[in-house]
Amino acid sequence: MTSEYIYVIGLIIPVLSFLLQIWPRLINRYFGIDTWRHLMFAEYVRKHKKLPEEIKDRYLVTGPFNYPPGIIFFLALFPKKFADKYQYIFSPLFDIVNNYMVFFATLYLTNDLFAAIIAQIIAALVPIIVIEASNLSTRIFSNVFYIFSFFPLLLYTFTNNVIFLIIAGIFLYILFLSHKLAIQAYLFTVIGLSIIERDPIYIVFFITAFAFTYVFGGNIYRIVFRDHLLILDYWRRNIDFRFAHQFRGLPKKKDSMDFVQRMYMLSLRNPYVYLIANNPWLGVFLGILLYDFFWNLPLTTTIHPIMFNKLITWTLIGLVSSLIISAIKPLRFLGEGQRYIEYCVFPMAIILGSYAASAFQLYGQLFLVVFGITVIGMTGAIIFLQKKTILEDTSRTITKGLWEIISYLNSQKQVRIAVFPFQMGDAMMYFLNGKVLTTDSVIGLIKLKDVFPILKKPLVEIIKKYRINYVLF
Prior knowledge:
The chain has helices spanning 3-9, 12-27, 35-48, 70-75, 80-85, 90-110, 113-124, 127-132, 138-159, 162-176, 180-197, 201-216, 218-238, 259-269, 271-278, 281-294, 305-327, 345-363, 365-391, 400-409, 425-431, 442-447, 459-465; strands at residues 415-419, 434-436, 470-472. It is an all-alpha fold. Strand 1 (415-419), helix 21 and strand 2 (434-436) form a beta-alpha-beta unit. Helix 14 (259-269) packs across helix 15 (271-278).
């Protein structure tokens, strides 16, 4: 089989994964939270050919623009009508790139087409990735640059080929301008690798790339970096109310919660179960490592031992970071712990794919039957989650009733509306001809201390202070 056909075969799983990710969005077209803010910024860039300094015509509380602009510049390449109508396809398209990179990297490291395809299937059936791709997410977008930077960095430390180091640096520069939590995950991983391998190259590379971005990224990155520090400090001080309702406060067992809220509560009560539920393949990965530690694993891998150990370390650092941040309350300001495992799906899939090739040689059809049953089960679980989190959602969706409210408000003059809870504020902001009591800036969040994360003053005072003429619950 020629190499051209092999790489065409590598596109089959990404396309099937794309279809799995978008089908619920073909039914629920207007789902998501941050989606509308990204589209609003992109529209500003289209009109003004630059990033905004401050958005004053959409929000009742404003602050300086400080969002990583990567996804905004990307969305601005498309006409507004197209981006609005098809906003749900972008994240799945980004994930096609991620999945195809899994195929390419596995094939490169193993020279085994079967291993590459199995690795792709595993990467395509990670619940947290599929659900994350259901809306216009900067996490899926940033994962492209994370992979295109970190994998070449590992290749550089393995081969000493400077080309890999240059590629890693270029994509890390883009990553700095794309997503803050991805940078945290990257930092934790380079620190871990530097300690475990006793080689400072990883952390030196990161610091050098940061300094380059800070100096040559212009005022844009300096503002983004300042916001990064501010938002970490904001949630450090308010982490007790991370999942609080603005009126009811912290959730209680008797409170009525939707499926997503119940899952968030599970992440606090039992983070270990929650993390494995987000990516059950990690359970398989850990099982293999533990078996190999206590007994002699009958499976082998064709990946060079040095490179294989680097991939294992990458995966373990992502998993350990997730566990520590989820389990230790004072560290939860660093972000939702399960998000960190999104950035180690790539190495995990390669490792499991390489072992799968060995398992097939050893067990033949038995392996195919077991793996096939596992794939069917994972697909079913993902479809169940899509049904619960997307198709049955009302709190993150512009429903028919909400469209009627928006239509009515757009017929009124000088609308100043408060939306509770805040999570639908950006959707209202994007489609309303008025101003919404929310913000696009951490400075704005600090100004909103009486309203968010919980209401600290009577609603009457809030209405008077911001001259609100409509309230939506």
